[in-house]
Description:
heterodimer, A: 462 residues, Multidrug efflux transporter AcrB transmembrane fold, Gyrase A, domain 2, 3 domains, four-stranded antiparallel sheet, 15 strands, B: alpha+beta, Alpha-Beta Plaits, 2 domains, two-stranded parallel ribbon
Amino acid sequence: MRVDRRLLFLIGVIALLALFIDGFAYIYRAATNQPLTGKIRGIPTLNIGFLGFSQQIYVHKGLDLQGGTHLELEITNVRSGTPIREARDIAVQIVERRVNSSGYAESVVRPEGDNRILVELPGVNLEQAKQILGKTSYLTIWEWVPGIPDAKTLQELNPTNANQYQGFKPQFTNIDGSMITSASRSTDPNTNLPDVQFSFNSKGSDLFCNLTRDRVSHPQGTPENKIAIFIDKDLVEDANVQSEICGGTGIITGGFTPASAQALAVQLNSGALPGTISLVSSTEVGATLGASTVKLSLLAGAFGLAIVIVFMLLYYRLPGVVASVALLLYAAIALAIFKLTLAGLAGFILSVGMAVDANVLIFERVKEELRAGRTLGASMEAGVRRAWPAIRDSNISTLITCFVLYFFGAPLIKGFAITLAIGVLVSMFSAIVTTQQFLQVLAGLRPARRLALYGVQAPKAA
Amino acid sequence: MDIVGRRNWYFLLSLAIILPGIISMLFFGFRLGIDFAGGDQFNIAFKQPTSAADVQKEMDTFNVEATVQQAGPNNVLITTKPLGINEETAVRDDLNKKFGGTVASSAFVGPTIAKELVVGAGALIAIASILIVAYLSFRFNYKFAVCAILALLHDVFVLTGVYSILGKILNLQLGEINTLFVTAALTVIGFSVHDTIVIFDRIRENLRQASRLTFEQNVNLSIIQSLARSINTSMTVVFVLVALFLISPQNIKGFTLALLIGIVSGTYSSIFNASPLLVVWRRLDPR
């Protein structure tokens, strides 16, 4: 193996790129007067969709280090007829809309499993988070038909409301809040009372048009002339239909105060939640605690790295220098692509260990070859070659563990797994490509040929 | 140095560490964090030094099964049963009014999710082990694979056993089993196998070269040849972890300690258990 100038060049480019990314964000933020945490405006986000990996290109801090709230929500009591995954996706959209309309644009809302939603709100405490997520309302429109309410209806609706007309039962018209595109508070021009206006999408508009046309054919004032609007289980409006309504808008009047009309409009805007959302877990980290954790973690990381470098310099001499440079390069690359969280940090530390290990394996082999009396160049080549099966097999088994963790683990474990996997891959690159190339460069330099520099005594018989 | 020859002593030492742990696990179980038990946990920061006992007295008035621990001169950690929104707000407001304390961090885990985690953690370890056996059987042979997994189980039992003792018998917060602990345990599995494979690789290489050494001598030679590497690599990781343990905040001390124990155990088991086990097997079944 000779020195490959193209590979050396590639290593240099990657190093510069990593350093640039590490330092860039801070300079850019300072220059553009942006806050030091959160997403940076005007910087592309790197997306690797199938891995769920989305990351802005800068040193990225997780919630546990930057402060904020992480919530896991679950959708239960899903309305019959709605597949659970569909319900989950609708709920994700609703939660997202809620969160975004509250001005927390750096947040993350994504589905997890069949019926869970993960929400990450940087810089928000739990109380605020709960307020934001608060209550979303499910609006449904029903018509009255002859019959007696069955058990299912009585579960979905308040029984008092459902039974209010002798001999009639409510029947779902398939119009629900998901068809509402907007809602706002307004005032009835005739009575001067607050009401809520809403508009339908085209599907809702058609259904509503047909419904009102059908209802208006029944005698005024009879139950069959009415449409019933339910919010969650409660009847909020039971109105006589005086003419067909085909313009795609509707009005709910019903004894609102201005405040309650406003509240309903907001809830309708949040759309139709096809079930109940409940909180199953939450983690909240105050900004101060987060900041002190960052300091401690970085300190620990730097301290640990320093110890490792000192150790390698003492034990392996010149190759130790090489390994240290490779390791620093590795740290720079890792920092550039990792999301910095506590679990991520653990993955990073472990992969530092593995990056060192690959180097140690190579150097031990090189030493052996040198002791056996081979030339420097030949020893280095043989060292890398003979260390390779061990590096390959041990790292592949680690990658297998990462794979299992990533696909079956809880979110926190996922983060750790992806960090460790990237760490293992980058460290293999660092050891096999970077270290090897540097060693080859060394082997070509005359002053670097003294065996003492490698911690080996010259063999007695050459 | 004859490591393989003294293997029974090393097996005995492993048993001496594992058995008390297993007994503790069987009779006392684990000190479960709220990740697994379900519940609410608050880390409260006060403006002035506040004793856990005072806060405990206050919390007892709420009747929420609260335990309060000192987490620093100005910090306490409160663990309760799962609280509703109203209860939780009441507690927070009360502590703020009485002691001037604000929430530095909090965690809530509902009962359903806690159950899933317990099942999940065990399954993860099992799946990962099976896949690793498959890979090692392909690269080496099934005897190597099984010995690697035995060493892995050794490390898992050392770690869980020590944590059972720490958490239940010594009653330390440090010995709490939570998601971070599971992460640490999984990391240890990765590391343990990694370490074992490096030695196995040496055995494989030495076996290929025709030599007059017996299998037993060959294994011993391979262990000695990779000893420098085994110890050097573990030492570097141990250095980093000790640094992390000493200065890490309370909430991740248990995590770093678990990594530390696991990695020391992993190094021990790959040198003194995994490879000598190959020799034991070879004697029982000399094919």
